[in-house]
């Protein structure tokens, strides 16, 4: 079994939103809903300023709080470590939204079901890359098996010393280069 | 705010309901003659819980559209909400049974009542744990919160019961000094717990400090100071203390003893204190939901 | 001719007259419309449906130019509500479509249009060139309905009514936004009620 | 029996068998949908290679078509700009095809912003008559045509105009790269070079941001350069989004770029780091230039630019040492495409700095690109119209402007003077984007005939007498496009789906038919396919093959680094000293030129730039893109916190922006990322056409504040020569 994860190199991210748009299309989201949120972190004082653009989506935590709090077991982790929502079980209680550290979940206006990044599980199954990865203009995103030391993503994480956003808060599976 | 007014109302009503149940059980034993109070507590308890549950269902949009999905609520024993669902279900059964017996004027099975009391306490604790286990929100994620919620549940439970009962039997309400003393103790404990919680969490965590700041000096400071502290806590504490003090004084004079025996204090004081406790109880939950500042992750 | 068949004739006639109302008005139409000719006839036929089809129009245009303006403001390509079914429904149900608007409303040639195209193909029917991008235009739908009432099995007609006229409520909401005359709103309101009445009859028949 | 008095106009035509077929019925929508979706898996999906129109890059895309409808878009792997990727705009812009906010039939204006549908025949007839009447009365020089050119337009539009006898063909470059083009053209003989980013070691950008005006391959090449350890210096009054990839940000005072380049050139010579060999062999006039440069010391530049003399020196020296794999990126609009009074001179100084580094035609340097040799129409069968007898309007005033592009806004000026009587705008929102909208509106109203060809009711269309509906890029074939670059190639825009609106037409047809109505049909006696066949003839590529592949690159004809071509300047060499400039009345060598206006302590300079999700104003009405603007408040102006504090403005506050031309209300993003002297406003907002419902009312139009003006050298729009004051207002 694979343990899927991603690396995002924020130093390469120019904030073009291509990932957001292709994610919306892949997941058939209405334009107002998105699984990828962008944060800007400005540091320093003019003219010594740095601006970091950090795209954040579901981090597919291994000890995901959304999975443990979900009263209906609608949110679950697959064998491949992808956290998914079974929309036929979700009652829309939003407990998972409250519990998610990364604010990565959104409630569908139409169905009331809470949704989030799915690592494009159906594409991954076909051996393809998630939409946000394949569309990334600057190749800032790498996806693959974290358990395979020879996968591109594992190698890149080692090479760039990428880290989860908050390693102290749990084992999330998106690594960031900052 | 992911969880807003509706969930605040749900948490409030669940606590209130549990508190009312416990109040009525206490009164049944301590003041058997205060039937109106006992009956009130037993009737409003399942009714308020039911309203709370309806609000919860209303807020769960996807479930509302597919009601059968609510069955899954009983499936994840890792989730506080699932456990709470069991607590509430059992509590609801016991409370509804007790109320039914009261309406039918039949004897209540005391084991069922004991179970009801147990699950009432569990329900009150659950409302605290529901948000207390959320590690992402430090102001919630403290051991004090469940205690605070239980204390507030009891206090609102007493207030709710007394308020409704005073319309039927204002004398009885006035005679129950024991309840008043407990209530005063609970309210004082609440003040202590709120500020302890603020102090402890804001010293240890930045997000919690931010939450506290929005409450005491920021966006929600007006409603915090006026709504919760002044109206919800200080006012009832003052009035109840005054009443208890008066009571003591009255007992020292002959006329006073007679007056007290006749229960002529009027219901104005009760109306004011108990309503303000209820308002405070709701505001407390609303504010805690509103002031949630998640841990920073950037 | 039995009673039921005769009623069908009237109903079909009614729908085909109503279809005229949703077409871009021209001089020929105006000649039929002016002095209440068309509306009177519609009213006459409506009596068949008694109260269910009661209807009030307050602002009947008396000049060709004002009718044209009303049409343009309400139903024209820049009007508040274009009477095309696809615009009021999700563009496609096909999950494999990854266009940015696949699940959005407000786009032409959606699945409903494809279905009407399919029906036109199956029945070897043709519609004018200018409706090519909008085979699900209300005028086309009403003409088709009129035709089906007379020629197709009741069950099919019933389904067609069910499938292709369930957007009128949303359409009416848009029409209500107009600052111009309420004429088309009132007409459509009546159409909605009439459709409901006819639908009920079809349920009974089936 | 029922007898309808109303004449039946039913338009459904039933075939002989219809009644029989109908009596059997067919499937209802629900079962049809499930069948349709289920069958979808087996339905053949056709893949049609084409080019995007989300911006001017025209990246290669592949359209996936199912059941006659567009289904999916993907990037063309072989296209040099796309490299298999599509940006957000590319995905979003496809929405246009099935949008209800399109132009669907020819319209004639009957009042202010009021239109009446007319037939094509009537439109052609009336436009033709009016054009001929204007020619008769005022001569063909009173007619003009302006466009944001695409492959077909580039061929058909000037041909149409020439056939009428008018030379007045213009492009959008007046508010894009006219200054840079003029500066480069008279120096290197080309309006632009191409930067070999991925192989370069030291790259400087001046106002240009690959991350904000995206071409996928450009961003990738910059990432590659960074991975290879290149130094990347971003010169910009604002920390743009590409700064993430940069090693250094120089927060220059807006309008002072020329001073910096001059000082860097000064240092290069002083330190003897210029490529003397290259200069000797391939240039003229270096002596004069180096004499002029003597006064432009880094200390002098520090005062103007706000960048320390040390920094200027360090960078110039490092670039000199890294040469020839060092360059200043040529940019498009950037900071000197059409921005300041000194922009043409900045363009010239940049080209010359690159020449001093000897990086022309070097790996990691500036490449003078090559284009495939395309064929022309057979002159016997399809004779070209004869060259107009007049000079293009504006050429006398701005002889340095690149002739093919011209100075498009001269049309408005001449209209105001009553000399220009007709304007045709194709795929161009000139009234909102080219010059001050108020001025443009008045100018357009003074002409006898304004015709707009577009897909949407743009602000320009609203001011036109006739609006002709184009088909979208998804619904049309276009002329073969030659791709210039290090490697030359061919690309083709192809029709993916049948046109949605039957009454829309592609411009090759519009011009051909309009020409007939104007009596010049003989010049359009060919078809688009015929034209394409003839264009491809010399390339050895068949039309069929290009149609199948969409993109064909001629790897064997790629530029070999190190070989200097003969330049198209008068001297055939790099011109440090330009006789052409002298003749036009300007200094033959680059000199410091002050910007036209400068802010006081109280006011700001208003500057503009792009955002990655929009392309000019043409994507503003695309819901999936505009939603991003709404979610992240991207329409806000940027203000430095130091200035904001003084004005009592907090992040998110509503303010009033006031210039000599207009007053606008907008919210503020208070950020350290902007020079205190400048206010930045993205250039995609402020749509006023009520036909564009998604876009209308969001943000304000930058151009509303830009005074109608011409830069003296190239005629460019001087779009950053704007002073504004800002005050807090209630929202």
From TrEMBL, chain A:
Q: Which GO terms describe its molecular function?
A: 4 iron, 4 sulfur cluster binding; metal ion binding
Q: Where is the signal peptide?
A: none
Q: Mind telling me which PROSITE patterns this protein's record contains?
A: 4FE4S_FER_2
Keyword Metal-binding attached: yes
Limits of the 4Fe-4S ferredoxin-type domain: 4-34, 49-80, 81-110
- Has UniProt tagged this entry with the keyword Iron-sulfur? yes
Q: Which Pfam families match?
A: Fer4_11 (PF13247)
The record ties this protein, via CDD domains, to: PsrB
Q: Which UniProt keywords apply?
A: 4Fe-4S, Iron, Iron-sulfur, Metal-binding
Q: What is the protein's name according to its record?
A: 4Fe-4S dicluster domain-containing protein
UniProtKB/TrEMBL annotation, chain B:
Q: Which GO terms of the cellular component aspect does the record hold?
A: plasma membrane
Compartments reported by the entry: Cell membrane
Chief place of localization? membrane
Task: Output the Pfam families linked to this UniProt entry.
Answer: NrfD (PF03916)
Which terms are listed as keywords in the entry?
Answer: Cell membrane, Membrane, Transmembrane, Transmembrane helix
TM annotation in the entry: 6-27, 39-58, 70-100, 112-137, 143-164, 184-203, 223-242
Task: Describe its membrane topology.
Answer: Multi-pass membrane protein
Family recorded in the similarity comment: Belongs to the NrfD family.
- Full protein name: Polysulfide reductase
Q: Which source organism?
A: Mesobacillus zeae
From TrEMBL, chain C:
InterPro entries according to UniProt? DMSO/NO3_reduct_chaperone, TorD-like_sf
Which one Pfam family would you cite for this protein? Nitrate_red_del
Q: What SUPFAM superfamilies has UniProt attached to this entry?
A: TorD-like (SSF89155)
Q: What is this protein called?
A: Molecular chaperone TorD
UniProtKB/TrEMBL annotation, chain D:
Query: Which GO-annotated molecular functions does the record name?
Result: 4 iron, 4 sulfur cluster binding; metal ion binding; molybdopterin cofactor binding; oxidoreductase activity
Keyword hit for Metal-binding: yes
This chain belongs to the protein called: Twin-arginine translocation signal domain-containing protein
Q: What Pfam families does this protein map onto?
A: Molybdop_Fe4S4 (PF04879), Molybdopterin (PF00384), Molydop_binding (PF01568)
Basic and acidic residues composition bias: which ranges? 373-392
Needs which cofactor?
Mo-bis(molybdopterin guanine dinucleotide)
Return the InterPro entries for the record.
Answer: Asp_de-COase-like_dom_sf, MoPterin_dinucl-bd_dom, Mopterin_OxRdtase, Mopterin_OxRdtase_4Fe-4S_dom, Prok_Mopterin_Oxidored, TAT_signal, TAT_signal_bac_arc
The record's listing under SMART domains reads:
Molybdop_Fe4S4
Region labeled Disordered — which residues? 371-392
What are the alphabetically sorted keywords of the record? 4Fe-4S, Iron, Iron-sulfur, Metal-binding, Molybdenum, Oxidoreductase, Signal
Say which family it is in: Belongs to the prokaryotic molybdopterin-containing oxidoreductase family.
Q: Does the keyword Cell membrane apply?
A: no
Ranges for domain 4Fe-4S Mo/W bis-MGD-type: 45-101
Q: Which domain of life is it from?
A: Bacteria
């Amino acid at each position: 079994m694979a343990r899927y994860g991603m690396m995002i190199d924020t130093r390469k991210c120019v904030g073009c939103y291509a990932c957001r748009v292709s994610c919306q299309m892949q997941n058939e989201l209405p334009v107002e809903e998105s699984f990828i949120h962008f944060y800007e972190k400005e540091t320093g004082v003019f003219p010594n300023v740095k601006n970091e653009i950090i795209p954040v989506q579901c981090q597919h935590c291994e000890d995901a709080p959304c999975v443990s709090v979900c009263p209906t077991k609608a949110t679950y982790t697959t064998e491949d470590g992808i956290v998914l929502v079974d929309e036929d079980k979700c009652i829309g209680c939003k407990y998972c939204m409250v519990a998610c550290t990364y604010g990565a979940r959104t409630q569908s206006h139409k169905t009331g079901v809470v949704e989030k990044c799915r690592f494009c599980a159906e594409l991954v199954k076909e051996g393809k890359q998630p939409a946000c990865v394949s569309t990334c203009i600057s190749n800032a995103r790498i996806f693959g098996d974290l358990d395979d030391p020879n996968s591109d993503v594992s190698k890149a994480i080692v090479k760039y010393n990428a880290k989860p956003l908050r390693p102290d808060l749990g084992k999330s599976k998106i690594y960031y280069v900052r | 705010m992911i969880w807003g007014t509706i969930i605040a109302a749900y948490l409030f009503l669940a606590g209130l309901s549990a508190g009312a149940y416990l109040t009525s059980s206490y009164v049944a034993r301590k003041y058997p003659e205060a039937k109106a109070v006992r009956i009130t507590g037993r009737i409003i308890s399942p009714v308020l819980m039911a309203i709370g549950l309806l609000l919860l269902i209303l807020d769960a949009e996807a479930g509302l559209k597919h009601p059968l999905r609510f069955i899954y609520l009983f499936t994840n024993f890792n989730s506080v909400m699932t456990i709470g669902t069991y607590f509430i279900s059992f509590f609801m059964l016991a409370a509804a049974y007790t109320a039914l017996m009261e309406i039918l004027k039949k004897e209540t099975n005391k084991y069922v009542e004991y179970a009801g009391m147990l699950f009432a306490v569990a329900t009150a604790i659950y409302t605290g744990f529901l948000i207390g286990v959320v590690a992402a929100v430090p102001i919630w994620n403290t051991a004090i919160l469940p205690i605070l919620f239980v204390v507030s549940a009891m206090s609102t439970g007493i207030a709710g019961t007394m308020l409704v009962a005073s319309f039927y039997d204002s004398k009885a309400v006035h005679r129950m000094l024991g309840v008043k003393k407990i209530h005063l103790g609970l309210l004082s404990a609440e003040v202590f717990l709120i500020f302890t919680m603020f102090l402890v969490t804001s010293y240890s965590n930045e997000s919690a400090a931010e939450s506290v700041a929005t409450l005491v000096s920021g966006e929600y400071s007006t409603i915090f100071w006026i709504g919760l502290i002044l109206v919800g806590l200080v006012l009832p504490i003052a009035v109840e203390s005054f009443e208890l003090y008066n009571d003591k004084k009255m007992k020292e004079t002959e006329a006073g003893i007679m007056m007290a025996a006749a229960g002529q204090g009027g219901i104005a004081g009760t109306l004011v204190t108990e309503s303000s406790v209820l308002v405070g109880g709701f505001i407390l939950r609303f504010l805690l939901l509103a002031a949630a500042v998640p841990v920073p992750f950037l | 001719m039995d009673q039921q068949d005769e009623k069908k004739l009237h109903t079909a006639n009614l729908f085909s007259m109503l279809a005229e109302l949703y077409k871009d008005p021209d001089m020929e139409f105006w000649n039929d419309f002016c002095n209440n000719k068309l509306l009177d006839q519609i009213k006459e036929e409506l009596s068949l449906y008694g109260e269910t089809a009661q209807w009030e129009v307050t602002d009947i245009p008396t000049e060709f130019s004002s009718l044209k303006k009303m049409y343009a403001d309400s139903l024209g390509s820049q009007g508040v509500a274009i009477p095309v079914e696809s615009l009021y429904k999700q563009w496609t149900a096909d999950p494999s479509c990854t266009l940015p608007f696949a699940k959005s409303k407000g786009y032409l040639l959606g699945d409903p249009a494809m279905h009407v195209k399919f029906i036109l193909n199956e029945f070897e029917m043709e519609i004018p060139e200018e409706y090519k991008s909008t085979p699900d235009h209300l005028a086309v739908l009403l003409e088709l309905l009129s035709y089906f009432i007379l020629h197709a099995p009741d069950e099919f007609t019933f389904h067609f009514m069910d499938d292709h006229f369930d957007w009128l409520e949303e359409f009416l909401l848009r029409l209500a936004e107009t600052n111009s005359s309420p004429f088309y709103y009132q007409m459509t309101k009546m159409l909605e009620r009439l459709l409901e009445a006819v639908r009920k009859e079809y349920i009974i028949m089936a | 029996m029922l007898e309808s008095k109303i004449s039946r106009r039913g338009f459904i035509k039933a075939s002989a068998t219809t009644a029989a077929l109908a009596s059997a019925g067919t499937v209802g929508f629900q079962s049809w949908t499930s069948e349709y979706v289920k069958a979808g898996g087996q339905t053949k999906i056709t893949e049609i290679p084409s080019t995007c129109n989300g911006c001017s890059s025209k990246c290669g895309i592949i359209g996936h078509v199912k059941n006659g409808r567009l289904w999916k878009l993907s990037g063309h792997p072989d296209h040099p700009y796309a490299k298999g990727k599509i940006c957000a705009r590319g995905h979003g812009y496809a929405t246009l095809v099935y949008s209800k906010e399109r132009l669907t039939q020819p319209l004639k204006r009957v009042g202010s912003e009021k239109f009446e549908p007319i037939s094509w025949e009537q439109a052609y007839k009336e436009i033709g008559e009016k054009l001929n009447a204007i020619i008769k009365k005022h001569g063909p020089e009173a007619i003009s045509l302006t466009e944001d050119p695409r492959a077909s337009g580039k061929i058909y539009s000037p041909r149409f105009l020439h056939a009428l006898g008018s030379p007045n063909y213009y492009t959008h470059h007046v508010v894009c790269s006219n200054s840079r083009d003029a500066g480069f053209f008279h120096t290197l003989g080309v309006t632009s070079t191409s930067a070999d980013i991925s192989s370069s070691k030291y790259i400087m950008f001046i106002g240009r941001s690959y991350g904000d005006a995206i071409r996928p391959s450009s961003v990738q090449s910059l990432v590659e350069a960074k991975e290879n350890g290149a130094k990347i210096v971003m010169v910009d009054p604002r920390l743009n989004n590409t700064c993430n990839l940069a090693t250094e940000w120089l927060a220059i005072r807006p309008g002072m770029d020329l001073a910096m380049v001059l000082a860097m050139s000064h240092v290069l010579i002083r330190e003897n780091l210029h490529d003397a060999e290259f200069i000797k062999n391939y240039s003229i006039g270096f002596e004069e230039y180096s004499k002029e440069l003597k006064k432009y010391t880094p200390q002098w530049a520090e005062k103007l630019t706000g960048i320390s003399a040390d920094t200027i020196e360090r960078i110039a020296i490092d670039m000199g040492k890294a040469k020839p794999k060092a360059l200043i990126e040529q940019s498009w609009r950037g900071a000197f495409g059409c921005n300041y009074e000194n922009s043409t001179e900045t363009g010239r100084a940049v080209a010359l700095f690159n020449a001093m580094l000897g990086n022309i035609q070097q790996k990691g340097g500036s490449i003078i690109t090559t284009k495939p040799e395309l064929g022309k129409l057979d002159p016997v069968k399809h004779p070209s119209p004869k060259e107009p007898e007049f000079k293009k309007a504006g050429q006398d005033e701005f002889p340095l402007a690149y002739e093919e592009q011209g100075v498009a806004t001269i049309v408005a000026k001449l209209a105001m003077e009553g000399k220009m009587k007709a304007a045709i705008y194709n795929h161009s929102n000139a009234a909102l984007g080219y010059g001050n909208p108020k001025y443009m509106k008045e100018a357009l109203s003074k002409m006898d005939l304004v015709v707009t060809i577009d897909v949407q009711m743009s602000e320009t269309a609203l001011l036109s007498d006739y609006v002709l509906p184009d088909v979208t890029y998804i619904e049309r074939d276009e002329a073969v496009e030659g791709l210039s670059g290090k490697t030359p190639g061919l690309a083709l825009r192809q029709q993916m789906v049948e046109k949605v609106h039957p009454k829309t037409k592609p411009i090759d047809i519009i011009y051909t038919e309009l020409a007939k109505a104007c009596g010049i049909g003989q010049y359009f006696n060919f078809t688009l396919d015929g034209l394409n066949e003839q264009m491809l003839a010399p390339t050895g590529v068949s039309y069929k093959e290009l149609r199948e592949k969409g993109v064909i690159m001629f790897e064997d004809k790629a530029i070999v680094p190190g070989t200097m071509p003969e330049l198209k300047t008068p001297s055939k060499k790099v011109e440090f000293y330009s006789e052409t400039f002298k003749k036009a009345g300007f200094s033959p060598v680059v000199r410091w030129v002050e910007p036209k206006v400068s802010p006081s302590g109280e006011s700001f300079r208003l500057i503009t730039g792009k955002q990655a999700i929009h392309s000019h104003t043409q994507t503003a009405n695309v819901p999936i893109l505009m939603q991003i603007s709404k979610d992240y408040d991207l329409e806000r102006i940027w203000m430095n916190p130091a200035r904001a504090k003084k004005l009592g403005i907090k992040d998110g506050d509503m303010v009033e922006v006031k210039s000599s031309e207009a007053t606008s209300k907008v919210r503020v993003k208070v950020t350290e990322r902007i020079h205190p002297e400048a206010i930045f406003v993205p250039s995609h907002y402020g749509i006023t056409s009520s036909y564009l419902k998604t876009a209308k009312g969001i943000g304000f139009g930058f151009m509303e504040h830009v005074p109608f003006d011409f830069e003296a050298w190239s005629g460019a729009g001087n779009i950053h020569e704007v002073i504004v004051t800002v005050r807090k207002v209630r929202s």
